[in-house]
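Notes from hallway chat w/ T.B., transcribed later so I don't forget. T.B. wanted the structure written out for a chain they're using in a teaching module, and asked if we could keep both sequence and structure tokens in one place. Agreed to drop them here.
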Amino acid sequence: MWPCQGSTAADHETWFEDATGRGGGVEIKAVDQGPGFHDSEAALKDHYSTGGTLGLGLPGAARIMDSLEIESQPGSGAIVTAKKWVKPRGK
């Protein structure tokens, strides 16, 4: 899980099954009470940082997960949800 810098966070992981028979996966949700994102698209680009970090956490997570969504309003925190499907063995 990537750190939610400068704020308190409530994170959770959930196993889910797809109703269409695709299989299952894991969902990771990070809830951040910080200042939120002013530009969610920029936050997903390598080396973009407003906190003096390397700016590789969110872009790296987006690359290894099957989906990554950011819900945020400036001044209201953010919710980052990432999903990874489990690949069946032998396929």
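Follow-up for T.B.: The chain is about 15% helix and 35% strand. Might be a good example for the class.
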